[in-house]
Amino acid sequence: MGKGKSDDPKDAKRKEKAKMQLKRNIGYFDGVSFIIGSIVGAGIFVSPTGVLKHSLLNIGVALIIWTASGLVSLMGSLCYAELGTALPFSGGEYSHIKRGLGSLPAFVFIWTSTFTKPASNAARALLFAEYATQPFYGICPAPEVLKKCLALAVLWSLGILNGRSVKMAAWVQTVFTLLKMMALSVIAIGGIVLLVGKRKESLARFEDAFSSEIPNASQVAEAFFQGLYAYGGWWSLNYMAEEMKNPSRNIPLTVMTAVPAVIVFYLLVNISYLTVLTPKEIVSSVAVAVTWADRVIPSVAWIIPLSVAVSIFGALNSSMFTLGRLSYAGSQSGHLPVLISMLNVHSCTPAPAMIFSTTIASIFIIPSDLITLTNYFGFSAWLMIGLTCASLIVLRYREPHLHRPYKVFLPVPFVMVAMSFFLVLAPIVWSPNLQYVYAFLFMLGSLFVYLPFIHFKLHFAFLDKITCHLQLLLEVCPADGSAEGKCE
């Protein structure tokens, strides 16, 4: 027998494992944990009041809007499932926009996300620090320096964890998602028990669900906007598509499990709140779940503030994981410095991407006033969702023979595009503010970077030396066979 190339499948598998690339370590349950962990943050515990307030305290309308918001989120996630199975690469919306609409819209997306997503992570870290430190200070406010130090410690702990081991990050995500769902289960089951126990005032509240004043169209739209905000994070799975085991099967299955589960839990938790508290009490409460616990389980009411901290921690871990993949994908395409797309030689994790995104988030924590500046970029999230769904439509017609293991019903992305652009324009038209202009100008400012450095490929030789030294220091090297390159 000759010593030619081996056709042994085990040998091929060993070679595949030896490649310097992201490994497919994320399974079905990990994916469900990441989606639920991304969606369920502090909002459902602390302030699920926006929908009820803009529904003019009309319980029936509020519950319909919670359901409708969840269904729109499910429609969006099914569109993303098609893109994730057809193009299973890191980067989420960035990779899909680049494939469908081109390099410039993708660069605008990553330019905006490089600032807004770390700012969001910084806000979560500060909120976690607020809930973690408050029990030690009672009614007094915790020192700002302490909260910022704890927020930085949490950010870097999760950044290092995500930079060292995907399996450990997924394990942490699963544990914290289970803990937050247990807390939501306590609230949901508690409400069902009380409702079945036939509290007269509670039953009357639901029997006359539509008896309050009916909101007008603009109020319904505002309530809808608040509901969709509460479901934010359903898009997170596509950022890690390159690391999903059997993405053709697991991406659609994960989406169809996680998003409906969140819809059911959100409805049950809201019904539980309304069983114990009046609509006016809910709207006026600073932390609805804490008020609920004081009424229903006063002896162990401390569980709820702890659950809020746990929920924020899980959402922060998921957000940091996905942001690292966005930076990694952007660098692979040449839209960020090449070092960011390199992988650690020991763990095959995008350690430089995690360091990059965590550093930017840390900058936002130190002068935390910067975070408020990014509040006016809320419209950009729906703009990018609209562009991603538009990419799906473009690819359906431009690349009809692209292998699509899962295909969404074609009218769904058209509805999502229309919905997205409505949600972009609505807040600007209803409450025009000069800050929206600044946000839009900031997004256009990406052209001043794109034209010289991406389009005309301006390059400085000294950066290669810096990259080489950092590569040795961090023990990283370029990935074998850029996945993004394969998808072009």
Tell me what the structure shows:
With 488 residues, the chain is mainly alpha-helical. The protein is 71% helix and 1% strand. The protein has helices spanning 9-18, 28-39, 43-46, 50-54, 59-86, 93-101, 103-133, 144-164, 166-196, 200-207, 217-230, 247-276, 279-284, 288-296, 303-332, 351-365, 369-373, 378-398, 411-430, 434-444, 447-455, 462-474, 483-486, and strands at 342-344, 476-478. It has a two-stranded antiparallel ribbon with strand order 1-2. Helix 6 crosses helix 18 (378-398), helix 7 (103-133) crosses helix 8 and helix 9 runs antiparallel to helix 15 (303-332). The chain is globular, with a radius of gyration of 23 Å. The model is unreliable at 1-5 and 482-487 (pLDDT under 50).
In whole angstroms, the N-to-C terminal distance is: 41 Å
Poorly predicted parts: 1-5, 482-487
Oligomer: single chain
Strand content is under 5%
Spatial sequence of strands, sheet with the most strands: 1-2
**Can you write the helix and strand succession as a string?**
HHHHHHHHHHHHHHHEHHHHHHHEH
Helix coverage percent of residues? over 70%
Please give the number of β-strands.
2
Q: Main sheet?
A: 2 strands, antiparallel
Spatial extent as radius of gyration: 23 Å
Mean pLDDT across residues: 88
Number of helices: 23
**Shape from CA axes?**
globular
Structural class category: mainly alpha
